[in-house]
Amino acid sequence: MRVFENLTATQRPAWPELQRLMGGASVTVEILAPDGAISRRTLEQLQVTTGSFLGAVVVHTGGLLIDHGWLRVYGSPFREGPGRLPGLAAVNDFPPESDAAWFPVSGLVVAHDVLGGVYVLNGHDPEAVGRPGNPGEMIYLAPDTLQWERLEAGYAAWLAWVLEGGLSEFTDGLRWDGWEAESRGLDGDRGLAFFPPLWSKEAHEDLGATSRVVVPLAELVGVARSTAAQFDGVDLGPLGSFDDARPVRRDETSELNT
Which superkingdom, per the lineage (predicted)? Predict the structure, then answer.
């Protein structure tokens, strides 16, 4: 396995280009500070260079909170840092030490949105694990259908699209008046659960008539997996690990429509 120094010794680092895109983004972008030790271990396990957007996010950020916190892109954060965003390594259950034999068989979970939607970078054989798309392609688990969707882009093109405002049309029908304030006020390990659920007929017909409550992201992805298995007999596979999920405090729900 290549060590950190080799993986960062690229003549064309991606970070300057990513900084340029974030600086000119049409959506809000909060860049969390990275933890150097975590970024080192994460990059060495990934075995990608900082010439890639993925490597740049892992090394130079503790993660990104994009579009009023709607989208959470994972990097290498301090464990108790601001925003309480989990790290890429933690979400994907990386081994504690670099292991050449380990890789994310079902793909790499690179981001979640506030609704519990899951963004995954496909591994080398997505068909073998029941995922659509090609190796190295981004896919999305839609929280309103519990179906995987191909995004027909790799990580870099997907992130550039997000920063250019692509989520606005992509989330059509899934946003409500005042969503910005609700999303912006959440920690990165929190999401919003709907009642009736987003995949229900009632929510599809009138999203504004639903109620929302703050829950741990662990709960959102857990319910998605169990519901898909119950209704469709489908195993969605790993959707991200949140072993240190915190209980929700009463003040976190006080401003929501309940």
Answer: Bacteria
Q: Are strands 63-66 and 147-150 parallel, antiparallel or unpaired?
A: unpaired
Nearby residues of 230 by Cβ (< 8 Å), 6 or more positions away? none
Q: What is the pTM of this model?
A: 0.94
pLDDT, one tens digit per residue, over 67-91 is 999 999 999 999 766 678 999 999 9
> Which residues of the chain carry a pLDDT beneath 50?
254-255, 258
- The set of long-range contacts for 53-56, using a CB threshold of 8 Å and a minimum separation of 24, is 53/14, 53/18, 53/155, 53/156, 53/159, 53/160, 54/110, 54/121, 54/155, 54/156, 55/7, 55/8, 55/14, 56/13, 56/14, 56/15, 56/18
Instruction: Compute the 3-state secondary structure of the chain and give helix, strand, coil in percent, each to the nearest 5.
Output: 35, 15, 50
Q: Phi then psi for 4, rounded to 5 degrees?
A: -55, -45
